[in-house]
Amino acid sequence: MQIIHISAECYPVAKVGGLADVVGALPKYQNELGMKSKVIMPFYDNSFTQNNKFKKVFAGTLQLGSDSLPFTIKSLPKKQLGFELFLVDIPKLLHTSFVYSDDDTRRFMAFQIAVMQYMLQLKKKPDIVHCHDHHTGLIPFMMSHADAYEDFRQTPSVFTIHNAQYQGWFSHDQVNLIPKFPLSKIGLLDWDNSINPLATAIKCAWRVTTVSPSYMEELKSEANGLQSLITSESDKCVGILNGIDTSVWNTETDPFLVKNYSETTVLSGKKANKKWLCDEFKLNAENPLFVFIGRLVGEKGSDLFPQVFKKALQNPKLSILLLGSGNKDTEKELLKVRKQFPKNYNTFIGYNEALSHKMYAGADFLLMPSRVEPCGLNQMYALRYGTVPVVSKVGGLIDTVVDLNENGFGIIHTEITVTQIVEAINRAVEFYKKDTVFRKNRKTIMKIDHSWHLSAQKYSNLYNSLKV
């Protein structure tokens, strides 16, 4: 079975969020199951593309409204990433140092058309076309209804919603960007008087998946305006929990760690990584160390951090380290907190992959007070590295973290408020004091299997159900 994944991101080529981690891992595990899984994504001008050699496999011209744009498809051999990678290079639109911009309607429309043009000329058509998030949401529509792509009418399409908050809306004035289709189908593009790629994909894809079962249920009541659509299409919708790539996230082999460790050496391994972090960021290594790794946006609850940290750090017997960027006001406030608590709080504004790995390894607790968390990978990385997640009761966090009070291994707060987050931190501090129990819990959580093996098999079963 041949599967083509289409995405705006893929780790390690280009990463903004969890979408990249999923698309960079799922095809690899599918190939291990005997499938032929490939990835097509935009060509960005970044360190990955600058440091690798690509083979040009196709050249063509696409029509974007009144503009004719030349494009090329470049490939990277399967052996490098565990799957074949194809990059769509469109000068001035996709050949950029950034992934997202203010011109994304044109950029990703051109990308999707180029993908369709490339697939059209393949001698062996894919058995499944798997699209990810709104940047690829018009492909199921084009496969089913665009005049030029009639060859794909019987090709099953799967669409995965990684985050329903972002839908790719654009005005009907730009409908001419979409390849010619029967005007009788215009209603499939519309939602709330605009063209909505996410809504279109939900309507047109053969199957719709989300990245966790709980998130699928949440979308029926809160999906940024698409609740009724998802409810009406629920018969073809399923939640499949994401996994993590355990070949990348492996404490025994991770090249970013100061000291590698296993379940049997977790005490010394985490101690060494914690010492490095505390030395680097001038924190007290004797304190329990809480970390946050992610985007500083409202979805992640990070707007509450300045108030949360000021209250929590009244207790000098804990330390907090933050890695992230996003809302500029939040960034400024967090830097002010650093001045107020220089001995037990620090922050790194930006993103650093190597530092994030050290933080998962060196921390005692991971903070995830998310308002929206479709699946969440950070809590799975933390568990894999023996770090206890302190999370809100939402989305995929519900499916992956069980509270200590329910014979579990993590700490959950039900509301995203300053008071409840601080209370959860205080619970964690008390748990940390129970040295023997805390150490045992570390070993327990490292054994939890959140690899892609099970999820890849569930996708295989889904694909097989669509065979025509």
Automatic annotation (TrEMBL):
<comment type="pathway">
    <text>Glycan biosynthesis; glycogen biosynthesis.</text>
</comment>
<dbReference type="Pfam" id="PF08323">
    <property type="entry name" value="Glyco_transf_5"/>
</dbReference>
<feature type="domain" description="Starch synthase catalytic">
    <location>
        <begin position="2"/>
        <end position="230"/>
    </location>
</feature>
<comment type="similarity">
    <text>Belongs to the glycosyltransferase 1 family. Bacterial/plant glycogen synthase subfamily.</text>
</comment>
<feature type="binding site">
    <location>
        <position position="15"/>
    </location>
    <ligand>
        <name>ADP-alpha-D-glucose</name>
    </ligand>
</feature>
<keyword id="KW-0808">Transferase</keyword>
<comment type="function">
    <text>Synthesizes alpha-1,4-glucan chains using ADP-glucose.</text>
</comment>
<dbReference type="GO" id="GO:0005978">
    <property type="term" value="P:glycogen biosynthetic process"/>
</dbReference>
<keyword id="KW-0320">Glycogen biosynthesis</keyword>
<dbReference type="InterPro" id="IPR001296">
    <property type="entry name" value="Glyco_trans_1"/>
</dbReference>
<feature type="domain" description="Glycosyl transferase family 1">
    <location>
        <begin position="282"/>
        <end position="442"/>
    </location>
</feature>
<dbReference type="Pfam" id="PF00534">
    <property type="entry name" value="Glycos_transf_1"/>
</dbReference>
<dbReference type="GO" id="GO:0009011">
    <property type="term" value="F:alpha-1,4-glucan glucosyltransferase (ADP-glucose donor) activity"/>
</dbReference>
<keyword id="KW-0328">Glycosyltransferase</keyword>
<protein>
    <recommendedName>
        <fullName>Glycogen synthase</fullName>
        <ecNumber>2.4.1.21</ecNumber>
    </recommendedName>
</protein>
<dbReference type="InterPro" id="IPR011835">
    <property type="entry name" value="GS/SS"/>
</dbReference>
<dbReference type="InterPro" id="IPR013534">
    <property type="entry name" value="Starch_synth_cat_dom"/>
</dbReference>
<dbReference type="GO" id="GO:0004373">
    <property type="term" value="F:alpha-1,4-glucan glucosyltransferase (UDP-glucose donor) activity"/>
</dbReference>
